[in-house]
Amino acid sequence: MSARLFVALGLPEKVSDPLLDLMEGVDGARWQDADNLHVTLRYIGAVDGRVADDVHLALSQVRAPPFPLKIRGVGHFERKRLGKALWADFAPSPPLEALQHSVEMAVRRAGMEAETRKFMPHITLARLNRSTGDFSNWLTRHGALALPPWEVRTMALYQSHLTQYGAHYEVLETYPLQP
């Protein structure tokens, strides 16, 4: 049996609560639940139990110190000129970039192929589709979003469960950040 895995940073309530307050005002947007808010460091995909164990072992060896992280602004992804997602952005963070690189190297050591997409840290707030209304006012209204920084102290290995209501994410293992 395979599991759909990814590595991410969870959010404290002092960050997720203000983000939840932004989740309105776009017709047809599928807003995320608080439990699904995270910062993906590396999507792994469907793997069997042996590979999952190898990924866990490799992630347990990642060393990175805790660091502050700050949300600054919002944005959107699109494909073929159609909106796909609304997201919260981050102030530049060399420690976040370094952690993501360490996670990428660990996942490769566990036998996974290299990620070909450029790392673009964000928190997905809503999924959009053809029936979604205009979201330009939402982007303008929240473009200056700035939340106080929080101290990132852990990362986690998640499993994604697909249901008829969307994805549900389960934390399989948490890894403390330490130098």
Quick structural gist:
The chain has 179 residues and is α+β, with helices and mostly antiparallel strands. The protein contains four helices and ten strands; from the N terminus they run E-H-E-E-H-E-E-E-H-E-H-E-E-E.
The backbone outline, from C-alpha atoms, is: globular
Helix content: 10-25%
* Secondary-structure element string: EHEEHEEEHEHEEE
Q: Order of strands across the widest beta sheet? A: 3-1-9-10
Report how far the terminal alpha carbons are from each other. 35 Å
* Tally of DSSP β-strands: 10
By secondary-structure content and strand pairing, the structural class works out as alpha+beta
Number of helices: 4
Report the radius of gyration as a whole number of Å. Answer: 17 Å
How would a textbook summarize the main sheet? 4 strands, antiparallel
Overall pLDDT confidence: 94
Strand content: 35-45%
Unreliable residue runs: none
Descriptive notes:
- The structure is a single chain.
- Helix 2 (49-60) packs across helix 3.
- The model has no long low-confidence stretch (mean pLDDT 94).
- Helix content is 25%, strand content 39%.
- By secondary structure, the protein is of the alpha+beta class.
- The strands form three sheets. The chain has a four-stranded antiparallel beta sheet, covered by helices on one side.
List its salient traits.
about 180 residues, alpha+beta, about 25% helix
Q: What's the topology here?
A:
Elements: E1 3-10, H1 13-21, E2 30-31, E3 38-47, H2 49-60, E4 67-69, E5 71-79, E6 82-90, H3 94-109, E7 123-127, H4 136-142, E8 150-152, E9 154-163, E10 166-176
Antiparallel strand pairs: 1-3, 1-9, 2-7, 4-8, 5-6, 6-7, 9-10
